[in-house]
User: Fold this.
Amino acid sequence: MTATISTTETRAERHVTVFVDRCAGCQECVIRCPAGALSMEPVTWTAIANDAACVGCRQCERTCPFAAITVEGPLAVSERYDPPIHQPVELRGNVEETRRGYDTWEEAIAEANRCLACPDPTCMRGCPAHNDIPQFVAAIREHDLEKAHAILRRTTVIPDICSRVCNQAAQCEGACTWSLAGGVPVAIGRLERFIADHAPVPAPTLTKSDDPISVGIIGSGPAGIGAAWDLIEAGASVTVYEKDDTAGGLPVWGMPDFTLPDEVAARPWHQLVEAGVDLRLNTPIPADSIDQLLTVHDAVVVAHGAGIPIRLPVPGADLEGVVDATMFLKAAKAAMMPGGDAAALRAELGVSEGRGARVLVLGAGNTAMDVARMARRLGLEATCVDWLDERFALARPDELSEARHEGVEVRFLRTLTALEGDGRVQRAQLAHTVQPERTKQPTVLKSVPDVLDVDLVVMAMGYRLDASFREVLPSLPVTKRHVGLAHGRWTASGILKNPASAYNHHSPVGSLALDREVGLWAATLPQRDRVWVAGDALTGPATVVEAMAQGRRAARSILDAHPARPDRSEDFRADHQPRILIAYASAGGTTAALSQAIADGLGLAGARVSVKPVGQVGAKDLAAADAIVLGTWVEGLVVAKVRPAKAMRDWLAATPNLGAKPVATFCTFAVNPRGASDELGKLVARAGGTVVTSEVFGPHDRSDGARLHPTKPEAFANRIAARVITRVAAVVA
Amino acid sequence: MALQTDVTREGHRDVSTGAHLIDPIAVAIRTRRPEDPPSGRFNETDPSPGLDVARNPLVAKILHDRKFQFLMILPNQIIFWLVIGIGLLGTVVPGLNFATAITWYLWFALVFVMMVVVGRAWCAMCPFGGFGEWVQRHTFWRRKDSSIGLGLKMPEKVAQYGFLISVSAFLLLTWIEEYFNIAGPGNPASTSFMVLGIVGSALLFFLLFERRTFCRYVCPLTALIGTVGTMGSVAGFRTRDREVCQSCETKDCMRGDADGYGCPWYTWPGSSDSNSACGLCTECYKACPSDNIGLFVQKPLTSVVAPSRRRADVAWSIALLFGLVVYQQLNALTVFANFDTWLNNHTFFPHYPDPISYLGIIVAVAAVMAGFAWVFKQSFARTDYTPAISGRSFVDRTSTFRAYFLPLMYGIIPVVGADYFARQLPKFFQHVPRVPVAIGHLFGFGSTQSSLYNASLISSNAGIIAVQVGVMAAGTLAAMWTSWRIAGRDLAPVGGNKRAVQISAASFALALGVVTAVLYILMNAAD
Assistant:
C-alpha cells in the first residue's frame, strides 16, 4: 500500500510570475500562500515569489484582485490513496458496506500530509457545515483523535454519517485548493471517517438548567438531530415528535446499509435519548397542530423533511408496477434485514428473480443509485435513466461508478415519455435529450425513442415539501439562491474562481456553497413567532449535512432569542435582556441622528440596542434581534411619489421573513410625510413583521436643544419600550 | 438585495451578534499577517490628511453618488458624437466646422491644462473610455454584477512594457495626424474619422479585455497624461489610514462590492504613491466599506519628485515623448522641410512626414537622453555600486545605467510637459475665437467673414513666442527644481558627490529647456 503513496519532487518545475506593472502590493496572495512562497519586494513594494518554495496550488492566482500573478508547472502533491471498494462476491442479499475508510494510521497520515493547511481554507466554505478541516486534519497528523473530535464537534454532530453519505466531490473536496487548481483533492471525507471510525463520536455534554427553555422539534432526521443536540447540550428541554416508528429520518429508512450501516445511522439517537431528549415516536404533527405545540413549548423547530416523492406525470404512470422510491427503499431495507423475506417482497412487487426481471429507475441521483443497487441485491436487473448529461450528474461520482460496477445500467440523456402495458407496466419509452450546459435544462429531442422492456418502475427523481405546511408557514420553501455580489471574503478566498475540474463533475463548488449560505441563514431566522424551520422542510430536498447544519443554526438562534411561551414566569423572561435592532435609511443624517436618539432612550429602558444603516443589516442581525425599529427618510416631491426611501423599500422587499417580530417604524420628513408611514407599515407586514407602533418626525420634532422632556423622539422611544420590551418580556398574544 | 448580499456577511466583528451564533469560517481563517512597508516607503508620497477634500460632506456626497462620473462624461460624450457627425456632414471649411474648431483649438489645449494642473482629470470625463465602459458594464452608472465582453487580462509579455504601448499608439496617431494634416487643420471629416477610430478601438478593447485595460495600457494619451500629469496637484484617491487598508479583509476597492466597481485602473489606494494611475473615477471611494479612502490634493510636482519607485516604462516614455515634441518643433523649420522632401524623394514616400525622419528624430532624441544618462553614470557612479537584485520584467529590471536614467527622466517631466503645452498654445491663442463662430455656424449664423472668426487672442508672432518662451521658462525652472530634488535623493546615494550630481542634473534640465525655447523662437521666426 505504502508504495502507492509516492511524493513527486517537482519543485523546481514551477514558476510564479508577478505582473510587476499590475501588482498593487495588497498582499492578498502573500497572506494566503500555504507554502509561504510569497513575500514583498521592499523597493517596488510588489509581491515576489520563491519558485523553489511554490507548491503550485494557485491560491495566489485565485485570490489576486487584479489577476496580477500566474503560476506555471505541476502541482507538488503526492498521489491520493483511496482504499479499494469492498465488492461482495455474491451481491444478492449482501448489504455489507461497500466503501471503506482508512484502516491504519499510516494511510491516514499519508493522506493528511497532502493537506496544505491553507491559511484561508476554501474547503471549509465548501463544507455545508463549515467544518474546520485543516485543523482536524492537523489533529490526525498529531495522532490526537480526541482533539480531532473536539474540532469537529464545533460544527457537526454526525461526522460518522456525513463522512459516509456526503458528496464530498461537490463540497469540501471540490473546494480543496488542489481541486480548484485542477488536481486531486485531499480525501477529506475519508479522514473525517477515520476519526469517527477509530474513536467514538462523543455523546452530548450536558449543561444543567433550573428553568430550561422548552423546545419541540418536529421530525427526527438530520435537522432534528442537529437542533436537538445543540439544545440539549445548552440545557434546554427537548421533545422530538417523529411520525415513524424509528427515529433518524431518511438516513435510517432511505439509505441502504451498504452505504450507511444501521448502527451508524442510529448512533445519534442512542446518544440523544440517553442525554435526556424526549423522543416520541409514532407521533405525527399535522400543520394545524403547531399552534398547540407553541402553548407547551417556548419554541418549535419544524424539521420534518421533504418526504413527498415526486411522481412523473407520464401516460401509464398509474399502471400496476409503478412505485415510488420511498416505498421501495423501505420495503427493500426491511426485506434485507436479518429475518426479512426478499422473496415475499419480490412477490409483492410482482417481479420474479431469475428471469432477468428489469427495474427501471427514474433518475440517476443518489436515491436512484440506492434504489438500483438495492434492486441488484434483490436479484433484479436495474436501469437508471436521467435526462441530464453525465458530465452534470447529480450522484456522487464514486456512487455512480460503484453502481455500474454492480451491474446497474445508467443511461444519461434519456427521459421517460410513456409507460405502456396491459394493466401492468411492460414497456417504457425513453426519449433522447441534450444538455450542452450545466445551467441549462435539457431539451427533449424528437428522434425515435428507445423502448425498454420493464417489469417494475421506481420513481426516484426526488422529493418535495408537504404542501399542507405552507398554509401555516407560507414563506416556505426558501429558495436557496445567492443573489447579487458575493461578500468580499468569499471572493477573496478564491473559492468562486474555480475551473470546475473534472474531478468534481465540473460542479461550480463556489456558487453552490454560496447558495447554501442562504439556507443556513434562513434557518437562523424564525419563520413565524417562535417557530424555526430547518433542513429539507425549509429549502426542499437537500443533503444530510445541510439539514444538520441548519438544525444547529436554528437551535443556536433559539438559544439567543430566548423565546417564552405565554405561561412563562417573569423570572424566566428576566433572564433575557431584550435586543432591539434599529435599522435606518438616512440621506442627510437626520434619520441616523434620530435613530441614535431613540436608541439612547431604549437603552435607558433596559434594552440592548444596535443601530445600523439598512444596507449593513444582515440576516444575523435580524436573527439576533427580538424587535426591530425601522426608520426612513421620506423621498419624493411634496405631492408626487412621497414614500419611504428606496433603500428601505428595497431592503424590505429583499428580506425573506421577519418571523412576526414586533416592528416599530418611524419616518422623517421635510414638508409632509403624506402616506409614507402607512406604506412602510404595509411593507413591513408583507415582510412578515408586526407593526406595534409608528411615528413621523418633521423638521421641528428634533430633540436638539429641546427644553421640554420627553422630546418627541424620547416619547417615541418610551412608547416602543412599553410596547416592544414588555411585549418581548411579557405576554405574546 | 442588501440582505441577500449580507446573508454571507461574516459577523465576527458584529457586536449585535448573539453569543451562540458564531460563524465558524471567521474563526478558522488564519491568514498570515501582512508585511509592513519599509519605514518611510510612503512618507514622501502620502498627502497630508488635511488635504483630503472628501472630508467635506458635500464633496463626499457628490463622490458617493453613482451618477457622478456619468455626469462628468455625458457633456463630452455629446460633444464628441457631435464632432463625429458634424465633421462628416458639416462645412468643409475647417475653421468654421465645429469638429475641427472644438477639437483642435480648444480641447487639445484644455487637456494639457487639466493634465498639468490636476493630473488625470480628462480620464475622469473622457468620452472614449466612457463609452467603452458604458457598453462593457451595460449601464450608464449603476453597479451591475455582470459585464459584457471576454474580460481578458493584458498578457504580462505586453503589460510589462506599461506606458510604452501607449507611447507607440501616440506616435502612430500623431504620424497619422501629421500625414493627413488632421489638426493642421485639414478636412474636418478627418477629425471625425480619427475620433471614430479612437472610440472604435476603445470599444474593441473594452469588449476584449477587462476593466479599463484600454485606458491603462493602450490609449494614445495615457502615457502622456500618466507622465506629464504627475505634475498635477490632485493626488487622487488614496488611503486615509494605511493600517486599515492593509488589514482590510475584503479589498472591495480592488474587487468591487455592491456600491462600487473594483478599481478599473488596477490601482490600490493602499499602496498608491503617485497620481499616475488614478483615473479619478471614484469607484474605490464608493466601494470602501471602511470609509478609509479620501480624495487628496497635493503640492504641484509631488508625484514627480516623491515616489521612490521609479519605473523604466515611465522613463523611456518621457524620453520618447520628448523626442516627439522636439520633432514637432523641428518640423516647422525650413531646413527640416527641405530634409523631409529630400528623404521622400529618395525613399519614394509620397509626402510629409517621412516615417524614417519621423521615427529617426524621435529615437535619436530618446537616445540622446539615454546618452546623457550614460555620461552621468560614467561621471558619478561609485565603482563599488551594485544595483539591487534584478527583476525579470522590463519595468523592474535594474542596472547602474537605469539607476541614473530613470531618475533623470523623471526630473525632466516639467520640461516635457511645458514643451507639449507650449506647442499647443499658438492654435489656441490664434484660433480659439473661431469656436463660438463654428457653434454659431451650426445654427445658420457665423461665417469666415465675421470679425470673431478672424480675431486672435494673440496675433503677433512675437506675442506667441513670448508666451511659449514664458511657458518653457516656467517648465524649465520646475524641471531644475525637480531634477535637483530627485538627484539629491535618488542619484546621490549611487554616486559620490551629492552637490555635483544635483548641479549637473539641474543643468541638464536647464539645457533641455533652453534648447526647446530656442527652437520655439526659430520655428516662429520661420513662420
The longest helix of chain B spans residues 461-491.
